[in-house]
Amino acid sequence: MSGTAATAAPGPAAAAWRAFQLQLTLYRHTWHGTVFSSVVLPLLYMISIGIGVGSYIESGATGGITYAEFIAPGLVCAVAVMMLGGDMVYPVFGGYKEWGGAYLAQRATPLRPVDILNGHLLYAVAFRPLTACTVVALVLAGFGVYTSAWAALAVPAAAAVSAAFAPWLFAWCSSLKNDAMLNAVFRFAIMPVMLFSGVFFPAEQMPGFLQPLVWASPLWHGTELARAATAGFGTALPPAAHLAYLAVLAVGGWLAARRVIVRRLSF
Amino acid sequence: MSVIAYGLFRTRLGPSRAMLSRNWVAMRRAWVLVASGGVESLLFLFAFGFGVGALVGDITLPGGRTISYTAYVAPAILANAAMMGTLLETSINVFAKFKWMKVYDGVLATPMRPWDIALGEVWWALIRGGVYVAMFVIAMGAFGLLESVWSVLAVPAAVFIGLAFSGIGLTLATVFRNWPDFDWMMAIVFAMFLFGGTFTPVESYPGFAQPLVYAMPLYHGIELVRGISLGELGPMMAVNVLYLCALALAGTWIAQRRLAKALYK
Amino acid sequence: MPVDENEILVRAHGLRKRYGDFEAVRGVDFEIRRGEAFGFLGANGAGKSTTMRMIGCVSEPSDGALDLFGLDPHTDGPAIRARLGVVPQDNTLDNMLTVFENLTVYAGYFGIKRRTAARRAAELLEFVQLTARSRDKVDDLSGGMQRRLAIARSLINEPDLALLDEPTTGLDPQARHLLWERLFQLKQRGVSIVLTTHYMDEAEQLCDRLVIMDEGRIIASGSPRELIDTHVTKEVVELRYGGLHTTDLADIARTLDGIGSQVEALPDRILVYTDDGDDTTAALEARDVSPTSVLARRATLEDVFLRLTGRALGEDDG
């Protein structure tokens, strides 16, 4: 950050950085509460499903690798989605509330609505996945589920999934009137994406009429990329196509989210 | 039932109906949202029962019988649905009514007693849990998982699970101080879901973990529902039922004591 | 039903309430009769609300005897509460319900049949002038409306005794007057009322009989008129000195010996208690004390409270 006087209107990057600082400060108070959902829970999934159920699964069913090896890369990406459930649902909805709404408070400063959006996204799609998914990926290494160093690419894949998914959640939760609807976000967006994106079983098993939903899911594209890097599988589409889809989703989501936050914070 | 017993029944349980009807009036505008909670269990059934189940194929039970993995997991997820429906209702919603909305402060100014409040909340939670269970059983039927009449008997078995977790949830609602406490509850619930014998037989767990599993209320619920829906009855089921009933009674009793202590100040 | 004017509804003797080391109510005696409006007057923290909670049978007395309708709260709580109508300080309305549902659901807690409940709810909403709002959520109502709803709710079981804890605290003057009007009508209908307040004017307007509480004790009791006659003179002359400090006022007060029956220096003014305000005003003019303003007025309960506790009512006990 440059040392210019605080009174000058900040550029977009500097402004987003300032908005990000708020999220980071909040995180310092609550990080221990997030450890369970972002680190412990994926490990429990690995033990219970990956190893426990995996012991009943023959490697032929998962392309010649063990079931634990099969789910590990997708699990790293799924952590990004689980974390969005914590970072992009209640905090976004509450951001507009009179009781301590973070966005309202930031709006009273030189920050513009788009800066507030960028700051929160910076936190949710860069900081969080790059830290928590790295930890999860490292701990999973202890289960001996990687065969090559390329497995590290699961972490940027997770961040890409986050970038493609987060702005849409942001836009949705920003337009909700009633907090009871927040449960619907989990029920009808986060959980289905988590469970039906080819993380726990190959997506081709899904009935044909549901396949388009799988293709739409950012987590499926991320999991394809991560699994290709980790296990040396081919991806369903050329890797560039997966990346392009995630990029389109991210940009489109960002535009949608910007529209909503500008509308909500203009008075 | 004798007239006296019926009269006693009415005076003991009558007032709790008023609490039940309050919840119905309050929630009837949002019933779609409440009922859609049952969808979560269906998602788990599709993902793990059918998705992962297709990878596993058949599973051999400790007794030597071989069944499809889907048929093995489905009763456990049914038990989970009964747990989630009643636990969420009695813990989080009761907490909000108790600490934030001060609903019970108003109720206690009437002839209602803490015991009536606690019971009324249990009835309401059972209804919500029942909706989840019913949705699940219908889905099981639609996907051909109801192999015998035994499967339908799993529904009354789920009532024991609902009672037990109503008691636990009510007690937690009076013990918890703020929202992060509920995150911990959900963490434990998830751990029970993953390790309570849902996905693999407890006999396959390492020896040190098995006693822990036997202590989990959900484990007993799963054993009960699974045993009935697979038509494998055994004496251990009496233990399961007793354990769940004990939790229900103890939880509800502790909760009404604590409500009385907090509100009759 | 023939009203027995002397029937005693509530009888308390040596009533105490302790919270750990703190004693909120320190042995109070009172009797509340059918048909009267009975008030507990006192500053915040005097023990009024705690006493109300004990009368409402939602707080167990630590010591002493309490009897309502000839029943013992310890064993017959539900039966007693069935005959009470309670308006707590914070309303405790159910904000997940509409205005109308707040009444009908509450009626359910008394075991009142649905049809009866709906009829009474409609009548009561009419009485508190909320009929037009019956389908609204509670959160959409103003403070005064919420309080009126709470009063309507307390009447749903046609109580023998209504308990109102600081019914007008926090309301704007217009809302207060509307509420007083309704409470007055309630009295006329023959409903027995117990209320707590720290507003003198409220106590004077509404209460037939009242007790003044201070630090958990009853320090005086009687009708508003009796209290004034017993504890203060008929009239009071107030002297104000813009800008002077408390110590200066005390000095001036000392020079006023022999005027009126008693002189008291407060932080902001000097009070001269007297039975003849005009006489005293003349006498004051004769002494060269030159106040910025002089006001002769009738003595009020505020003066009684001041004489008895040495504090103004607005001041907290700390």
3D structure, described in words:
The complex is a heterotrimer of chains A (267), B (265) and C (318). By secondary structure, chain A is mainly α. Chain A has helices spanning 12-52, 67-87, 90-95, 102-107, 113-141, 154-174, 182-195, 211-216, 218-231, 239-264. Chain A has one domain. Chain A is built from ten helices and no strands. In chain B, 78% of the residues lie in helices and 2% in strands. Chain B has helices at residues 3-27, 31-35, 38-56, 69-100, 103-107, 114-142, 149-175, 179-195, 210-215, 217-229, 236-263, and strands at 58-60, 66-68. A two-stranded antiparallel sheet of chain B has the order 1-2. In chain B, α3 (38-56) crosses α6, α6 (114-142) runs antiparallel to α7 and α10 crosses α11 (236-263). The longest helix of chain B is centred in the N-terminal third of the chain and has 32 residues, at 69-100. With 318 residues, chain C is of the alpha/beta class. Chain C has helices at 48-55, 73-81, 99-109, 114-127, 143-154, 173-188, 200-206, 224-231, 246-254, 277-286, 301-309; strands spanning 8-19, 22-33, 37-41, 63-68, 84-87, 161-165, 192-197, 209-214, 217-222, 235-240, 262-265, 269-274, 293-298. Chain C has a six-stranded mixed beta sheet with strand order 5-6-7-3-8-9, with helices on both faces. In chain C, a hairpin with a 2-residue loop joins β1 (8-19) and β2 (22-33). In chain C, α3 (99-109) crosses α4 and α8 crosses α11. The model of chain C has no long low-confidence stretch (mean pLDDT 88). Chains in contact: A-B, B-C.
Estimate nothing, just give the exact number of structural domains of chain C: 2
Major sheet description of chain A: none
Largest sheet of chain C: 6 strands, mixed
Number of helices of chain C: 11
Q: Could you estimate the helical fraction of the residues of chain A in percent? A: 55-70%
- Average predicted confidence as pLDDT of chain A: 88
Which architecture name of the largest domain in chain C does CATH use?
Answer: 3-Layer(aba) Sandwich
Report the total helices of chain A.
10
**End-to-end distance of chain A, in Å?**
30 Å
Gyration radius of chain C, to the nearest Å?
22 Å
Query: What general outline of chain C do the C-alpha atoms trace?
Result: elongated
Q: Oligomer, anyone?
A: heterotrimer
Give the beta-strand count of chain C: 13
